[in-house]
Structures are given as C-alpha cells and as structure tokens.
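Lab meeting, action items carried over

1. Structure of the two-component assembly. Owner: GW. Status: complete.
Input record:
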Amino acid sequence: MCGIVGLFLKSPGLQAELGRLSADMLGIMSDRGPDSAGFAVYGTAAGDTTKLTLRIPEDVDASAMAAALGVTAVRRGDHAVVTVPRDAEGALRQALATRYPAVNIVSAGARIELYKGVGLPDAVSSRYGLPGMAGTHAIGHTRMATESAVTTHGAHPFSTGPDQCLVHNGSLSNHNALRRNLRREGLEFETENDSEVAAGYLTWRMRQGASLGEALEAAVGDLDGFYTFVVGTERGFGVLRDPIACKPAVMAETEDYVAFGSEYRALVPLPGIEQARLFEPAPGQVYFWEHAA
Amino acid sequence: MTETVFDLAAAPLRDLNGRLHALPEQTNETSWVLRNPQGRHAVAVGVDRPISVRIEGHVGYYCAGFNSRARIEITGNAGVGLAENMMSGEVRVQGDASQAAGATGRGGLLVIGGNAGARCGISMKGIDIVVRGSVGHMSAFMGQEGNLVVLGDAGDNLGDSLYEARLFVRGAVKSLGADCEEKPMGEAERAILAGLLDRAGFAAEAKPEEFRFYGSARKLYHFHVDYADSY
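Predicted assembly:
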C-alpha cells in the first residue's frame, strides 16, 4: 500500500498555495504510507538555467562544496538546489561525480525540484518546507515499504529525465528485463526499484519523441504488474492505472485545477472540492493535462 | 420520532459506530443524519437495527458494510466496497460507487444512482443491486444468487464464472466472462426485473423490455473428466 497525491493548477490563482495544499493532502495519506515520503514541485523557470536538486550526505559540508564548485546552493534539510546556466550542467555533473561521488542528483530540469526522505509524511513536508513552496503542479507520495527497505533511495518520486518524475502505487513484475533493455538504450538506474524502471521507461519513450500521453499509452502494453502512476513533466501531468485497476485512484477537476488522490480523503482540503467533478480514472486509460508552452 | 445528528468532523468515527451498534432493539433514535463524512472509511458499518441513516457527503471504503435491516442513504459518492456483505435492508448512494460495490452481499437492496466501478457485485450471494449508470469490468464475478440490474453499460467479462445470479443490462456489454451467456427473459425474470426497477425508483425511466438477460451457462459447475489430460 502507498499513497499518491497530485495537484495540477490550470489557472495561476492558486500557485502560491500549491505547496500548502499539497502538504495537507500528503499528510492525510500518512495512513497509506507512514515509512517515507517525497514530492516534486514545478516552480518557475529562470531563463536558460537548469536546477539540480542534490541530496547531500551528512559528512559533506554543503556550503564548502558549493563554494568549491563555484555555485550557489539553496539548502533545504539534507537537500540543496543548485541553479546553473544550462550549458554548465554537464561540467557540474562531472565535477560532482568526481569530487563528491556521495552526493546524489535527485532531479534536474528547468522547473522541477524534488525532495524525499524517511519519516512520517508531515515530518518530511516540514523538513523541506513544502507548505511554503509555489508552482504550477506538484506530485507527492507516501510509502509503505513492502518489497524493499525503508530508505531514502526507495522513496518516491523517481526522476529519470529532465523535468520528469513518477510516483507509483503497486508493483511491477517485468522490471528486471525492462531495466536490462533500458540500460542497453543508455538509461542509468540508481536502484533496483521497480518504480524507477517505470520512470526510466517513460523517459526513454519521450526521448524518442513521444508525448507524455503517447508514452503512457505505450506503457499499458509494455509494463506488467499492478500500478497507478502519476507522472509530471515540465508542463504536463499524467495518470495511468493498470487494466485490472487493483490500486485505488480518485480525481477531482474544477476550472482551477486537476487533482489526484489515492482516496477521496486526500482531496478534502482543496478549495471548491464540494463542487468539483469527481471521477475514478478508468482502468488502462491514459489521462493527461498540459499547459501551453 | 427524533432525528439524531452526528458530526464526524467533531467526534470520532468509533463513537458513531459504537452508538449505532449499542442501539436497543426498540430504539426511539430511528432517524440519523451524519454530517462531514469527508471520505472517511467504515462509516455506519455493521448496523443491525431497522433505522434510517442519511449520510451527507462522500464516504470512503466499506460504508454500510454488513448492513442488516437499516436504510442507509449517501448523498455523495462512495469508495471501495460499499455495502460489502450486506445482509438485509437498503443502501442507496446518489453519486458513484467505486470498485466492489455490494461484494459478497447476502440480501437487501443496493441502489447506485451514478456509475459503479469494477467488480460490482463480485461474489454476490443474494443481494439485489440496481445501478442507474454503468458498471466496470468483472462485475458479478462468481455471483451465486441475487440480481444485478444495470441501466447503462457493463465493462469487460461480465458475469465471469457465474453460478446462479441473474444479470439484467439495458446498454452494451463489452464482453461476457467465462460461462456467462445471454438467455431469453421469461415471465419470472421479467417480474423480478420490474419489481427491482420499481423498488429502486427507476420504473419511470426504464422498462423491463429494454433489458437483456444474462445468466450462467452452467458448464463450469463440475470437473469435466474429458479435460483431465489438460492438467
């Protein structure tokens, strides 16, 4: 069992509230996943820059590292966001890999920031300051570990491509074979986690030119197992359930937002929820929403 | 008759269910209104008194499970397992019901005003279910007794591995499950269907002759010795 929440704002009115609403939703899903939690927030892009969200182990001094690399790091708990010109991303990644191999790059992109950690969802939210964050869309996950240890590595979301992230409730049965094939295609995986493979699969499809919707359509045929996925891209927000639909999902749509919850309870804090159109996403059907570029 | 109002935003669910379970057989508290369910699970589960309960809002999982004799109405939507294993009485939801509505129900009437998700009436054992909208895949899977009436459409594998439940569908059936087949509707079935449409309150909008009737082909009842080599 795990919990998923997602909020995609259609209009700018609620953008300042995105983090607070997402944190409320995430906290309610503690019952479904008290082990660890994580979230991705899509904020504003700053020109031709890339944001890297880093997870920094305790024995690395983040300020000294930032100074040594010649970058500014915005610290949030054991995570830090570093913004660099897009053409400097490669050099920074190389410098991190050689000089700070223990530092994880958890996400990269023009707008995504991604935080995850062990502990109750409310504790994770406040550790990283989710309630104060603004943006256009956010995706969160609360994990009840069943197949692997309770570690930050096993927490969701997983990000395997620029501005992309995925959260998963369920378990995949063909992830080992898929991971081998995707590695051959040049994708890199940090864990043995099945959900990371699903994220990598969508990254691979989109790298080949598929839209988020097309990538999700293809996933219905290529991924085997139980899943409810919620996926974020720089401008998009997608939902897919396996054809048997073992894992719960409920959605709400108003003029202002599209929201996802593993249970209706998670949607209760949203403004205007009483008037929202509520529906259960159909099995095996792709749903996605996108902002114009 | 007194009306008892219980606000779930102000007091815990266990207090509510405890009070409902503790009602004496000849209670005067025969009319309950529940406010602010906010998607909570297990609301009004295990009621065994002839009372009426009106739930104002959306409920989570297993609402009205094991219901006996009570008449329970939900003004919003219901989550997974609405009226699971109902014994008798009546449960109505004005909106949609999620998966496995009426699962394993042994008696009573479940009326769904909107659509039902997958596995509606799975393993039904005598319950009557009337759905104004459509039902999802695998509905009435292994149904043993009772009636499922669907005014809309049915998803894939309707009535898979059916025993003796009767299935009436007005709209399209995406596919029938193993051992489920369409049958001619006789007078007895027509009377059952007409009675259920009437009790559900849909008699004015749906006529029995608009429905098709499905039941068990009865080929999976027994092990077939000719197939022994296949195992």
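2. GW to write a short summary for the group page. Key points so far: The mean pLDDT of chain B is 96. The longest strand of chain B covers residues 125-131.
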